[in-house]
Amino acid sequence: MCNTVAMNPGIDHTLRGGWTLEGGKLPAHALRWLRTRTGLSEHPTPVAPDSVLVVPEPELGEAARADLVAVVGEEHVLLDRTARLGRAGGLSYVDLLRHRGCGQLAVPDAVVLPADPDEVLAVLKACAEHNVGVVPFGGGTSVVGGVSALRGDKPAVIALDLVRLNRLVSVDPVSRLAVLQAGVRAPEAERLLAAHGFTLGHFPQSFERATIGGFAATRSAGQASSGYGRFEDMVEGLRLATPVGELKLGVAPATAAGPGLKDLVVGSEGAFGVISEVTLRVRRAPTHRRYEGVFLDGWDRGHEAVRDLAQQRVLADVTRLSDAEETEISLALTGGLKSQALTGYLRARRVTDPCLLILGWEANSAAELAARRAATLRVLRAHKPVRLGKVLGEAWRHGRYNGPRQRDALLDAGVCVETLETATHWSQLSTLRSAVRGALLRSLPGAVVMCHVSHAYETGASLYFTVLVPRATEDPIGQWQTAKSAACRAIAPLGTISHHHAVGTDHAPYLPGEVGELGVRVIESVKRELDPTGVLNPGKLLPVPPKG
Fold it and tell me: Which residues are involved in binding substrate (predicted)?
């Protein structure tokens, strides 16, 4: 059993629309639905102070601390309990449970805050000299164990917080390039770029907290990636600090000068080095937007429609298809368009298994928006959509970042709530969805398992699952880990173990199955070259530490 603790400080826990928080709690209609649908107890989990958490004394040696202080200054080497606890893990369900007193929390021995790329490089060299592990820390939004303060075989580990690397270094409006330091958070990046008339167009659900460096290190995919591209598509160059020196990559828009080292660094999750600056392709900030909701009858017709849009190259910037269960639950909990009346309206139009498709276009003129929207809807027409205009689309847009905050209220109510994602080719998509749903439902009897297509490509698409089930009282961490392992085993023969959440610790055991043993040895060889003492993000990405 475990208690819960207060929410992490510094996070805005207010919500707009949908499951709106009322004084930090779920509204009554949402709780009633959860109790009816999942058998959730009417007794919420009690809240306990964070003083119940065990935070060991720091084990950073005095010589290592002195060298780090010489690099960043006394005030930027933090040993206090609060600073260290605030960088202890990410935002997965298991991380949140551990912050609520369940299981053991991995707490860094110190938090180090460098001011610029040169200081990042110097910190890594000092840590290598003293054999101190280094966990790069940006927004702390990893949901796969990517920022857990694991030591591996090191006597101590620091969290290298990049919050002070918060500058827009330069903008090249002719080439449409911007250089941003790795610690810039996404909302601030958008604000800085907007002053020059540009946008990245990268809006994942972690947008409010995640950083530029984190996006690059994990191959992030935003909700509008059908229009703007995934984050790796935006990366034109970067600086990578390693214990043995600095890599500076990206001198031209395209090159045939050997294998793409830039692509090797993007997605390396801090295991090869610390990304300190990123050169990004930017776009003109849109002046016109339209988001709307469309209903299709059934999962098969829905994903066939999205495939048609992708293969005819008329996807909207946001193209998101919810399966029937996610659609039903979303409408029931939000009261979307008076959900009972909407159900009757759809049935009258022969939609008996409604799947909601959110479409969003962003453009720089009314004519451009109209032309793109018309092209999308022209192809969609063959799939017999029921269009409901802007109401549902705008509701989704305004609540697009609510998910991470809703989890706090669900956890308070005693709900196990977590997500996972994958991707595969179109011919395997429904097989993969069925396999993952089945694995989760067998592991978590009575659970609600929702799914949506979050990103679409000409050859395939990603599937994003959300799970709700009453939290086990005896072993809540084991409850989810058993289910997640079952889902991963279902995914492995059919798709990728991660489309955009990355590898971290959760998915590392499945990496050999995806890239092969030879592929793992290639990754190990790169790590040995860039990180010969193995101080960088111990325990992440690779299934086992590389042999010496």
Answer: 407
As given in the structure block, the two tokens for residue 303 are: 């994903």
Per the DSSP assignment, residues forming a β-bridge with 318 are 360
Confirm whether residue 275 is marked as ligand binding.
yes
Task: Return the exposure string of 153-166: e unless at least 16 CB atoms fall within 10 Å of the residue's CB, then b.
Answer: ebebbbbbbbebbb
Q: Indicate whether 233 and 313 sit together in one domain.
A: no
Q: Is 231 annotated as a binding residue?
A: no
- To the question of whether residue 276 is assigned a binding role by annotation, the answer is no
Q: Is residue 136 marked as binding?
A: yes
The CATH number covering residue 188 comes to 3.30.465.10
**Distance (Å, whole) CA 512 – CA 242:** 25
> To 10 degrees, the CA torsion angle through 340, 342, 345, 346?
-110
Q: Which residues contact 475 (CB under 8 A, 6 or more apart)?
A: none
Q: Is 140 annotated as a binding residue?
A: yes
Residues 259 and 298: beta-carbon distance below 8 Å: no
Predicted TM-score of the model (pTM):
0.93
pLDDT computed for residue 499 by the predictor = 97
Domain with 422, as residue range(s), is 403-506
**Residue ranges of the chain with pLDDT lower than 70?**
1-25, 43-51, 334-339, 544-548
269 is in an annotated binding site: yes
Q: How many CB atoms lie within 10 A of CB 428?
A: 15
DSSP classification of residue 266: T
Q: Which residues pair with 415 in a beta bridge?
A: 470
C-alpha–C-alpha distance, residues 17 and 177, integer Å: 36
Assigned domain for 532 exists: no
CA pseudo-torsion sign 31, 32, 35, 38: negative
Six-digit token pair at 459?
A: 């050859």
Please give the radius of gyration of the chain, using alpha carbons only, rounded to the nearest integer: 23
Active site residue 291: no
- One domain, residues 292 and 276: no
SS3 letters across 94-142: HHHHHCCCCCCCCCCCEEECCCCHHHHHHHHHHHHHHCCEEEEECCCCC
Q: Identify how many contiguous H helices and E strands the chain contains and give both numbers.
A: 19, 20
Name, in order, each residue with C-beta under 8 angstroms of 66's C-beta and a sequence gap of 6 or more.
Answer: none
Which pLDDT belongs to residue 36?
86
CB contact at 8 A, 84 and 139? no
Q: Is 470 annotated as a binding residue?
A: no
Query: Which pLDDT belongs to residue 9?
Result: 33
Q: Is 514 annotated as a binding residue?
A: no
In whole angstroms, what is the distance from residue 543 CA to residue 184 CA?
Answer: 30
Q: Tens digits of per-residue pLDDT, 68-119?
A: 999 999 999 999 999 999 999 999 999 999 998 888 899 999 999 999 999 9
Cross-strand partners of 464: 421, 452
What are the backbone dihedrals phi and psi of residue 313, each rounded to the nearest 5 degrees, phi first?
60, 45
Q: Both 375 and 444 in a single domain?
A: no
